[in-house]
C-alpha cells in the first residue's frame, strides 16, 4: 500500500434533516478541512461518498463524507481505502464523542468504539481497530436524556457559536497528523 496518501473521513448522516446536529460534527470537520486544503467535494459513485482530493506537500489527502447513514459508514470507508490504496493506519475517522467534554479534541490510533456505531461499523468493515480516530467532544446529554436523542439534536445557540472553533481545532490536529 502506498505511504503517500491519507484518507480523512468525517462521519455523519446524509440529508438536511441531520445538518447542524451533534452527530454530524464529522461532516462539519471534513468541510472545514476541504476548505483549508482548497478542495471541493464531488460524488465518488464507486464508493457512495462525497470526496475532495488535495495535496499537502508530497502527501495526497482524500477527504470523504459517506453518503450512507452513520451506522453503515464502514462499507464506504473500506471501499475508499481499497480504491485509493490507503492502509488502515493512514485513515483518520472524525466522529462525535459523548465521553469528551464539549469542544475537546483527541486523536488516537486504535482503541474501542465507546458505543459509537459508526466506529463499530468501520472496525468491522476494515477488519482491524488499527486506524486513527479523531474524537470531537460533544459532552454528555443533560439529565436523563437518551444519548441517541441527544446526538441527533441541533446545537444550542451558544454551542453553535463554538462549533467553527471546534472544527478549526480538529483541522489543526489533522494537519499535524499529516505532517
Automatic annotation (TrEMBL):
GO biological process: protein quality control for misfolded or incompletely synthesized proteins; rescue of stalled ribosome
EC number(s) stated in the UniProt entry for this protein: 3.1.1.29
Active-site residues, record numbering mapped to chain: 23 (proton acceptor)
Record site feature (Discriminates between blocked and unblocked aminoacyl-tRNA), residues: 13
Reaction equations catalysed: an N-acyl-L-alpha-aminoacyl-tRNA + H2O = an N-acyl-L-amino acid + a tRNA + H(+)
Annotated site, Stabilizes the basic form of H active site to accept a proton, chain positions: 96
One Gene Ontology cellular component: cytoplasm
Binding site for tRNA: 18, 69, 71, 117
Compartment(s) where it occurs, according to its Swiss-Prot or TrEMBL record: Cytoplasm
Annotated SUPFAM superfamilies: Peptidyl-tRNA hydrolase-like
Keywords: Cytoplasm, Hydrolase, RNA-binding, tRNA-binding
One Pfam assignment: Pept_tRNA_hydro
A GO molecular-function annotation: tRNA binding
EC class of the enzyme, as a word: hydrolase
Role according to the record: Catalyzes the release of premature peptidyl moieties from peptidyl-tRNA molecules trapped in stalled 50S ribosomal subunits, and thus maintains levels of free tRNAs and 50S ribosomes.
HAMAP family in UniProt: Pept_tRNA_hydro_bact
Subunit structure: Monomer.
PANTHER family membership: PEPTIDYL-TRNA HYDROLASE (PTHR17224)
Recorded family membership: Belongs to the PTH family.
Protein name per UniProt: Peptidyl-tRNA hydrolase
Annotated source species: Corynebacterium minutissimum
Lineage: Bacteria, Bacillati, Actinomycetota, Actinomycetes, Mycobacteriales
Amino acid at each position: 500500500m502506498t505511504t503517500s496518501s491519507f484518507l480523512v473521513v468525517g462521519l455523519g448522516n446524509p440529508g438536511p434533516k441531520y445538518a447542524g446536529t451533534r452527530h454530524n460534527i464529522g461532516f462539519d470537520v471534513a468541510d472545514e478541512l476541504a476548505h483549508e486544503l482548497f478542495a471541493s467535494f464531488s460524488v465518488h459513485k464507486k464508493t457512495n461518498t462525497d470526496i475532495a482530493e488535495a495535496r499537502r506537500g508530497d502527501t495526497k489527502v482524500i477527504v470523504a463524507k459517506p453518503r450512507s447513514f452513520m451506522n453503515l459508514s464502514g462499507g464506504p470507508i473500506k471501499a475508499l481505502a481499497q480504491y485509493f490504496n490507503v492502509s488502515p493506519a493512514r485513515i483518520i475517522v472524525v466522529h462525535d464523542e459523548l465521553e469528551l467534554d464539549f469542544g475537546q479534541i483527541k486523536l488516537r490510533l486504535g482503541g474501542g468504539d465507546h458505543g459509537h456505531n459508526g466506529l463499530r461499523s468501520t472496525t468491522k468493515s476494515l477488519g482491524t481497530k488499527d486506524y486513527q480516530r479523531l474524537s470531537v467532544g460533544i459532552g454528555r446529554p443533560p439529565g436523563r436524556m437518551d444519548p441517541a436523542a441527544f446526538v441527533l439534536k441541533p446545537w444550542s445557540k451558544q454551542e453553535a457559536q463554538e462549533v467553527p472553533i471546534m472544527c478549526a481545532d480538529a483541522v489543526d490536529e489533522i494537519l499535524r497528523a499529516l505532517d
